[in-house]
Every structure is written in structure tokens, then in C-alpha cells.
């Protein structure tokens, strides 16, 4: 919904101006006509909205679920949320949604117009809730689903952020030593004379190279990082190659597979429990997959089910799907309790991911200590070895 500015003649014949919200220019003119306003000037106001974080959307959904569960209608619940929000992008979003509801639009249709904020999973849940009259229950499920996904993402981010932060800190310390400390020792070695050990000469050469090409190396690093980011976002084949490389890494690969299987199981379980068919649930899961490789796998599973195979048979054909996931899905099909079994499967892999991340962190700590200690040790030996040699000669 866009915001329009108008200037024209009001019903009383006086000149007036104001703003309004409408889907397009035609709808804006229709609204003014109903208000007996003749517009001389009407144009859309360009608006650059600040980004709304995913966690804010989750909190918004949780508040809606709580208020509607207490008996409030959706518009009344939105009014209560708006009164409690400061003047922010989320306040503006809630106000826009309320306005569209008052104009007769359905809640699901209103959210569907904002695909950057509300994913297909939430839209399908809301649609199911509107048809079944269970909007508060399905809003609660949506909030729980997003909270679990956020917790899972945070665990993965922490597991990656810790070693990357330590390695970056090590790189900065090493660069500082090479650029600031090593040159001072080089002046001392030149005054002392004599032939330097090979390790010391290698460190001095590295320091000179870094000093002479520092800005070129920094620019190259930034260019490569930006190029890799653009390629990953824009080139599908490059994203597939990166995904396959990550999944082939020890410890990291199995952890990523378990995260993807957990998300798929949780998505399918929530949608199935809400009465949404498996075909629609798989389509939504593929759209929400953050990995092009897993998106392709889900699409292949969907196609296999279309051809008449059971869900467990389609999963068994995919080498990346763990056998225990196939067995649990098969047990759910045989007992006619597939949504419950998928929920149990998601719980199982969420615990496994937590355990693997803890294991990965535990294994990385001594390795990082060795890397840091090794670099500092090499520099210390390289810088003090010539001094010790001169001391022995004296």
C-alpha cells in the first residue's frame, strides 16, 4: 500500500491538502471521490522504510497470538499493539496492516503483499487459520516455529563466529607485529651485522612485503570478499558449488545437514498439524530453504511423491538425508501419525545440532590456541635467535 499526497478542493469548496494510503493512483482517486474531494494534484510519496528485523516480526506475531487468544478480534489486537509501540518502522507496519483490514482485506492477503517481511510459511498458516476459524492457535504455532528457527540460527552463528573472531584477532595481531615491531628489530640486526638465520630472514622479508603492499593486499581482500558475496547471491551454480564444498567438510558438513533436516521437519510438522497438505507443505519448504542444494533435494522429493512414491521412499533416494530421518518418517506413515513423528524428528535434530556445535567448539579451542601460540612462537624465535647467537659468540 502506497502513501499519496493530494491538493484540491474539498466538499465545502475550500482548498485543502493531505495524505492518504491506497494500493494505486486509481484507488486513491476513488477514495477522494467518495470524500467529495476534487484533486488538482495527486502523487505517490516516495518512502524508504527502515529495515524491520526478523526478531521484531516474531515478537509482533507472538503479541498478536496472545491478544487474539484472550478473545480480542484481530483489529482490536492490532490497536493494542500499536498503542504500545514507539514511533518506529514496526509501528508504521502495524498501522498499515490495520488500515488494510478496516478496508476489507483479509489478514493473509495483507501479509502476502509484504513478501520481504512475511514468508510463505506464515502466509499459508494464516490462510488455514482464517478458513478454520483458528487464527490465534495458528499464530501461536507460527511464533513458536520462528522462535525455534531463530534459536537454531543463533547456535550456528555462535559456532562460526567464535573461530572466525579468534582467527581475525590473530591476523590483526600478527600484522601489527610485522608492521610495527619487526622493523625495529631489523634496524638492530643491521647494526649488529653478520648473517641472519633463515627463519629470521623469512620473517623480515614477509614484514617488508606486507609493508610495501599493505594497501594493495587490503584492496584485493575486500574485492575478493565482495565478488564472492555477489557471486553467491546472484549465481545459482556458484551457490551450489559452495554448498557442496561446505557439506563435504568434516564436522561442519554433518552439522549443516542436521540443521537443514531439522528445519525441514519442523516446517512440515507445523504445516501438517495445521491441516495443510504435504504437497503444499513441500512447496513452501522449498521456497524457504536457504540452501539451493537442499531446495533442489526438496523439489526432487516432491516430484517423487507426485509420481506415486511415499514420503519415506522419496527421502530414502536422497543420499544426504540421514537414515534415522527416513526410519522415523516411515514409522509415522505406518502409524498414521506423520505430523507428530516429524515434530519428534525436529526435536531430535535440534538436540543433535546443539551437541555437535558444543563438540565443534570444544575441538576448535585447542586448535586455535595452537595456531595463535605457533604464530607468536615463530615470531619470537625468529626475532631473538640472532641475538642469542651473538651472545654465544661473545
Can you describe this structure?
The structure is a single chain. This protein starts with a strand and ends with a helix. Strand 1 (2-9) and strand 2 form a beta hairpin. It has helices at residues 25-34, 54-69, 74-84, 89-102, 107-112, 120-132, 135-192, 198-212, 214-234, 236-248, 252-273, 278-288, 292-306, 311-316, 323-334, 338-393; strands spanning 2-9, 15-22, 38-44. It is built from 16 helices and three strands. It is mainly alpha-helical and 394 residues long. The relative contact order is 0.07. Helix 3 runs antiparallel to helix 4, helix 6 runs antiparallel to helix 7 and helix 7 (135-192) packs parallel to helix 16. It has a three-stranded antiparallel beta sheet with strand order 2-1-3, covered by helices on one side. Among the domains are: 2-44; 54-146, Type II secretion system (T2SS), domain F (Receptor-associated Protein, Up-down Bundle), CATH 1.20.81.30; 252-354, Receptor-associated Protein, CATH 1.20.81.30. It is 76% helix and 6% strand. The radius of gyration is 30 Å and the shape is extended.
Q: What's the quick description here?
A:
The protein has 394 residues and is mainly α.
**CATH class type of the domain at 252-354:** Mainly Alpha
Global structural class: mainly alpha
CATH architecture of the domain at 252-354: Up-down Bundle
The poorly predicted ranges are none
Shape: extended
Q: Helix count, per DSSP? A: 16
Strand content: 5-15%
For the record, give the distance between the C-alpha atoms at the N and C termini, rounded to a whole number. Answer: 85 Å
**How many β-strand stretches?**
3
- Which strands sit side by side, in order, in the main sheet? 2-1-3
Helix content: over 70%
CATH superfamily of the domain at 252-354: Type II secretion system (T2SS), domain F
CATH topology type of the domain at 252-354:
Receptor-associated Protein
Estimate the mean pLDDT confidence.
84
Largest sheet: 3 strands, antiparallel
Radius of gyration: 30 Å
Give the topology string: H per helix, E per strand.
Answer: EEHEHHHHHHHHHHHHHHH
